Amino acid sequence: MPMPIYEYQCAVCGRRFAHFWRSMQAADQNPSPDCPQCQSPETQRVLSQVAVLGSLGGMTPTEQRRQEAQQQRLASITSKEQIDKLRTTKKKD
Ligand SMILES: [Zn+2]
After folding, report:
1. Residue 71: pLDDT above 90?
2. Sign of the dihedral through C-alpha 55, 56, 61, 67
3. Which residues surround ligand 1, an ion (CB under 5 A)?
4. How far is the CA of 37 from the centre of ligand 1 (A)?
5. How far is it, in rounded angstroms, from Cα 45 to Cα 81?
C-alpha cells in the first residue's frame, strides 16, 4: 500500500515541511499536522513543487537542479519525521 507524503506550510512561521501518512485515508481524515518548528496547528497542505513542475513538462537545467535539491531536502526531512511519526502513532493506534 502506498504511504503518501504531503507537503505542508506553516501560516505562522512559514516553515515548509513534509508529513508522512500511514495511508491516503489518514491524510484525508486527519487535520494538518502541527508545525515542527513552532508547534502551531495553523498549517496548510501545499501542492508539491515537484508535482507542479512535472505537470508543466520541460524544465530548464536550473529548475532541474533546484528540484533535485528540494527532493533531497524533503527526503532528509521526511525520514526524520517519519521516525518521530512512527514512534508517536504506535502508542495512539
Ligand atoms: Zn510554524
Report:
1. no
2. negative
3. 10, 12-13, 15, 35, 37-38, 40
4. 5
5. 16
Query: Please, which residues bridge with residue 17 across strands?
Result: 8
Q: Determine the Cα–Cα distance for residues 43 and 35; give it in Å rounded to an integer.
A: 7
The pTM of the full predicted model, rounded to 2 decimals, is 0.49
Whole-number pLDDT of residue 15: 96
Q: Domain coordinates of the chain in residue numbers?
A: 5-92
For ligand 1, the distance from its centroid to the CA atom of residue 55, given in whole angstroms, is: 29
Calculate how far, in angstroms, residue 20's C-alpha sits from the geometric centre of ligand 1.
Answer: 17
C-alpha of residue 93 to centroid of ligand 1, in Å: 26
Segment 9-31 shows an average pLDDT of: 91
Q: What does DSSP say about strands 5-10 and 16-20: parallel, antiparallel, or unpaired?
A: antiparallel
Give yes or no for residue 58 having a pLDDT over 70. no
